[in-house]
């Protein structure tokens, strides 16, 4: 490339960069709005991958070209475009699970070339083919500019620089090369169009969610007033049978969220049915810890290790539940959803701890089996901690799958009970586990209320509906009461379980 041409390219590069300052197209949202995820970065990452892969194929062909000066000039332009793409467009994130096969959908240049006739085209025909492809690329890539974000503001400049590159490569008398590049360009445009259609749909959803949050905050007078179910954004809607009494408090007004612990709303009973038992049982846990750590002689009122572990996980479950129902009225989407998922984690560890106590007392005479099934219970608890953070888990339409998941965790107790029956006998195992049946019955009874939304689904009178709006008291509060009852019953059963499984076949449990 001559000195004049290189100077013109550098001048054009500097000019385009200086004119691509992002424009502010919308007002700044509140903290609650800013917390919403913008999925545009995923689309830009996939476009980045497509362009870089395309440039790599083009670089390979230019490197093989015998037109040295022409190829060097093209490579200089290509390297400049690649550097800008790497700087402006985001890198591929590991959560883009549909991207590893993008490269597989792009044709290999040798394959493309094999289908081309081995003839030379005239310069005018070669230019016309390239010019036919470029308007579509310009129009479709220009659709990226629907946001004020810096990567998107770079797209028009990228279009211009690709046009300059293609104008350059149209010069040499290599019709097959130009035709192959043009075909790759068309496929790039098609894939870019598909990605942008997805991005535009996601952007519409985000804008709609942001509008719903703004409207709900406005109706709640910035968190000072209770609103109705119909006023809530979709992500906050969990029980359509409770029609009013909802808080919607921006996170920046967090003192108001804490004060709502002592206010009347439809989560009041949901909070305190678990917060009060947590505060009631916490002192006994605190008193037992020093005795376990410092004293070699067990204190009559102190808990043993299984009781201490179960009580700790039970209190964790109650505390996480109280936190979630307090934060259910927070207008910050990520904060609200995080607390909901943490609540599920507490439930998972309560189930794992319940199974673990049965394993510990049932296999005291068999340390190997005890270690095996205690490890199994621990794995179940870990699974119960990981699964709630999957994207689908907290969706309202997946409530039945959540219930099935926690029932499956509870059914993990079948394995140690079967081993216990094999080591001792079915009758001995049944007598040993009998004290736990009342707590199991309480869990199942509460689960029925939780799954069916009884009694609020039958409420027709305005007076009863106002009671639910005022303090709660619906199916979820009843479910909470049964959870607390089941925890108390299991703690009572542990006093019997610690005596062991008995003397069966000469083996003491």
Q: Main attributes?
A:
Rhopdopsin 7-helix transmembrane proteins, metal-binding, HlyIII-domain-containing protein, single chain, two-stranded antiparallel ribbon, about 500 residues, about 0% strand, disordered N terminus, transmembrane, zinc
Structure description:
68% of the residues lie in helices and 1% in strands. The chain is mainly α. The protein folds into 2 domains: 3-215; 234-292 and 302-499, Rhopdopsin 7-helix transmembrane proteins (Up-down Bundle), CATH 1.20.1070. α3 packs antiparallel against α4 and α12 (268-294) runs parallel beside α21 (475-497). 31% of the residues are buried.
Summary, kept brief:
This protein is mainly α and 509 residues long.
Architecture blueprint of SSEs:
Blueprint: H1 3-18, H2 31-34, H3 40-64, H4 68-88, H5 102-105, H6 109-114, H7 123-142, H8 150-153, H9 155-169, H10 175-219, H11 254-259, H12 268-294, H13 305-327, H14 333-362, H15 367-386, H16 399-411, H17 414-423, H18 426-433, H19 437-452, H20 462-471, H21 475-497, E1 503-504, E2 507-508
Antiparallel strand pairs: 1-2
Helix pairs in contact: 3-4, 3-10, 4-9, 7-9, 7-10, 12-13, 12-21, 13-14, 13-21, 14-15, 17-18, 19-21
């Amino acid at each position: 490339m001559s000195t004049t041409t290189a100077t013109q390219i550098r001048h054009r590069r500097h000019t385009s960069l200086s004119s691509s300052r992002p424009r502010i197209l919308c007002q700044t949202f509140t903290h609650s709005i800013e917390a919403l995820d913008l999925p545009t970065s995923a689309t830009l990452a996939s476009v980045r991958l497509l362009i870089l892969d395309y440039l790599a194929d083009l670089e390979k062909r230019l490197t093989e070209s015998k037109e040295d000066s022409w190829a060097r000039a093209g490579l200089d332009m290509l390297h400049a475009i690649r550097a800008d793409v790497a700087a402006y467009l985001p890198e591929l994130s590991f959560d883009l699970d549909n991207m590893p096969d993008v490269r597989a959908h792009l044709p290999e240049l040798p394959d493309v070339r094999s289908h081309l006739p081995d003839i030379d085209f005239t310069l005018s025909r070669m230019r016309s083919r390239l010019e036919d492809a470029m308007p579509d690329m310009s129009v479709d890539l220009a659709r990226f500019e629907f946001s004020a974000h810096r990567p998107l503001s770079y797209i028009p400049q990228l279009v211009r620089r690709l046009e300059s590159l293609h104008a350059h490569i149209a010069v040499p008398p290599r019709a097959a090369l130009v035709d192959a590049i043009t075909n790759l360009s068309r496929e790039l445009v098609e894939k870019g169009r598909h990605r942008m259609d997805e991005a535009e749909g996601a952007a519409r959803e985000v804008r709609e969610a942001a509008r719903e949050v703004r409207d709900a905050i406005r109706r709640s007078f910035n968190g000072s007033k209770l609103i109705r179910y119909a006023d809530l954004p979709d992500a906050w809607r969990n029980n359509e049978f409770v029609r009013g009494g909802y808080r919607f408090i921006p996170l920046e007004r967090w003192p108001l969220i804490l004060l709502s612990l002592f206010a009347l709303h439809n989560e009041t009973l949901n909070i305190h049915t678990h917060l009060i038992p947590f505060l009631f049982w916490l002192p006994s846990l605190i008193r037992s810890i020093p005795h376990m750590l410092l004293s070699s002689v067990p204190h009559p009122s102190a808990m043993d290790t299984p009781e201490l572990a179960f009580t700790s996980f039970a209190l964790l479950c109650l505390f996480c539940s109280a936190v979630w129902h307090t934060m259910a009225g927070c207008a910050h989407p990520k904060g609200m959803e995080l607390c909901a998922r943490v609540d599920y984690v507490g439930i998972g560890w309560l189930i794992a701890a319940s199974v673990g106590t049965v394993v510990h007392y049932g296999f005291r005479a068999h340390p190997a089996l005890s270690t095996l099934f205690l490890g199994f219970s621990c794995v179940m608890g870990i699974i119960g901690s990981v699964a709630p953070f999957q994207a689908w888990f907290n969706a309202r339409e997946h409530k039945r799958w959540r219930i099935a998941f926690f029932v499956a965790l509870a059914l993990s107790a079948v394995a140690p009970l079967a081993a216990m029956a094999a080591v001792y006998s079915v009758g001995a195992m049944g007598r040993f586990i009998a004290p736990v049946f009342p707590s199991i019955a309480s869990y199942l009874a509460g689960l029925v209320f939780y799954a069916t939304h009884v009694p609020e689904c039958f409420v027709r009178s305005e007076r009863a509906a106002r009671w639910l709006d005022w303090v709660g008291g619906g199916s979820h509060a009843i479910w909470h009461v049964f959870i607390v009852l089941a925890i108390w019953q299991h703690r009572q059963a542990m006093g019997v379980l610690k005596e062991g499984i008995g003397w069966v076949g000469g083996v003491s449990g």
